[in-house]
Specification:
single chain, mainly alpha, 3 helices, about 60% helix
């Protein structure tokens, strides 16, 4: 049994889908996606700080993975649309 399957069963067992009326499989996928996003954030953070030496001076420029910026354009467009409505 995978972690995702166990998570789904655990959510179901404790009726955690009840308050949000969201099926346990959707909640389990959301939690798994959150864990993946957190792992990417940790990797990006480690890459970011790896460019500095102990005196906080840049020793090498680091290019962060583009995947951490995925979706940023869409969010910006939504924010701009909401400003336009006001």
């Amino acid at each position: 049994m995978t972690f995702a399957q166990e998570l789904r069963e655990l959510l179901n067992k404790h009726s955690k889908e009840g308050k949000s009326n969201t099926p346990d499989l959707i909640l389990a996928k959301y939690i798994m996606d959150c864990l993946c996003a957190y792992e990417e954030a940790v990797k990006a953070r480690d890459q970011w700080w790896a460019q500095y030496d102990s005196d906080k001076k840049i020793r090498k420029k680091v290019k962060l993975p583009s995947s951490i910026f995925k979706g940023q354009k869409g969010r910006k467009q939504n924010e701009n649309k909401q400003k336009d409505k006001k």
